Automatic annotation (TrEMBL):
Domain Response regulatory per the UniProt entry, residue ranges: 18-136
Keyword Phosphoprotein: yes
Full protein name: Response regulator
InterPro entries for this protein: Bact_response_regulator, CheY-like_superfamily, Sig_transdc_resp-reg_receiver
Phosphoprotein is among the record's keywords: yes
Stored SMART domains: REC
Alphabetized UniProt keyword annotations: Phosphoprotein
Length: 268
């Protein structure tokens, strides 16, 4: 049995303590369960039917979810999107998608559904360990938008991709550059959430709340008084309860007035 050193076990313990495996193949699920127990998992539950996963996740509140990409009663990408857009307390839990199909479209589909890591079958204990250590030691910012909910896709790291860095955003940034990037992304999400409000009001409100919190914290950190005032105004409307597109339009637009024109041009 593959054994981890004490320091590694300590690092990954919070992630692997409770694990939900979604896989209709009993043999594959058993192999993954054995490996996870070797990594220190105390509770591992297996489910092969997508229709029962959300109720099970609500009951056990897993710290990690591992899901097969496809099966007789499973669409892994659709399941991940349902989890991310749910009211589950574990909706932000790390998700590893496992599949024998590691095509470019499969990797992109997994990334865009909201997974943290991608694991190709057949895999070794070391492959799984690296994915879990990434989850434990390299947390990714959370993106709460309308079109996408999940970990920041700019930091998606599949070991199945061996090419160069895909974006300038993949490179290390200074504190000032990082602040500009955070503000830029929050403004674009705000714009899109208001524009797409009618298509998914619940998720739009959730996205707007997250961006209001992000921008308010950023304004305080950078000493941006106009942004702090505008974000606080939006926060006040949200806190009043039952926000609608009509009630949110003016405070959202007050925040967006502080965005560079090129930011909103990219959002559109």
């Amino acid at each position: 049995m593959f054994a981890l050193d004490a320091k590694t076990m300590q690092r990954i313990a919070p992630v692997v303590r409770r694990v939900l495996i979604v896989d209709p193949n009993p043999a594959a699920a058993r192999l993954l369960m054995d490996l996870l127990k070797g990594f220190g998992s105390r509770e591992v539950v297996v489910e092969g039917d997508e229709s029962r996963v959300l109720d099970l996740a609500r009951e056990m509140e897993p710290g990690l979810i591992c899901t097969e990409r496809a099966g007789p009663k499973l669409d892994g990408e659709a399941l991940v999107r349902r989890i991310r857009r749910s009211s589950l307390s574990c909706r932000r839990a790390p998700i590893i998608m496992v599949t024998a199909e590691a095509t470019a479209s499969a990797i992109k589909g997994a990334r865009d559904s909201g997974v943290h890591e991608f694991l190709r079958k057949p895999f070794t204990s070391g492959d799984l360990q690296r994915r879990i250590e990434n989850l434990a030691t390299k947390p990714r910012d959370w993106v709460e938008a309308v079109g996408y909910v999940g970990p920041d896709r700019r930091r998606f790291n599949s070991d199945d991709y061996a090419g160069p860095q895909k974006r300038r955003a993949d490179k290390p940034r200074s504190g000032a550059e990082a602040a500009v990037a955070v503000k830029d992304q929050a403004m674009r999400i705000l714009f899109s959430a208001l524009t797409q409000f009618d298509s998914d009001p619940l998720q739009a409100v959730r996205a707007i709340k997250q961006q209001a919190e992000t921008l308010k914290a950023l304004a305080i950190k950078t000493g941006d008084a106009p942004l702090a005032i505008a974000a606080a105004g939006l926060d006040t409307v949200l806190a009043a309860g039952a926000p609608t597109r009509a009630s949110l339009t003016a405070p959202v637009q007050a925040v967006l007035k502080l965005a560079p024109p090129e930011t909103l041009a990219r959002a559109g």
